[in-house]
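Action item from last week, closing it out:
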Amino acid sequence: MRTVIHTDSAPKAIGTYSQAVRAGATVYLSGQIPLDPASGDLVAGDIDAEIARAFDNLEAVCLAAGGSLGHLVKLNVYLTDLGHFARINAAMEARFGAPYPARAAIGVAELPRGARVEVDGVMVLD
């Protein structure tokens, strides 16, 4: 049985996907880029502002599904510049406690709407 998760606290899907889908105790979270949920626009500012907004959006979907960032068991990070890898580490250290989720950091040529970062993940609820 699948349950679609949606919240207005994160940006609406900009394609043919759900913000998240729960199957049993597992929640599969779609990628979040640094869009402002109210305007649908990419946030202004440096890479730290983009990373913060992307994690804010992911957290909003986690909360809507009944969990938190602490329930993530797998996190995927997509960066258009792997030179920002240390900024991701700093943001994760500020938002996550140990034990950290398993993670991949992947360099990509481009992301939707000109974003420089996207995050998605898998969450397991108790």
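Closing note: The chain has one domain: 2-124.
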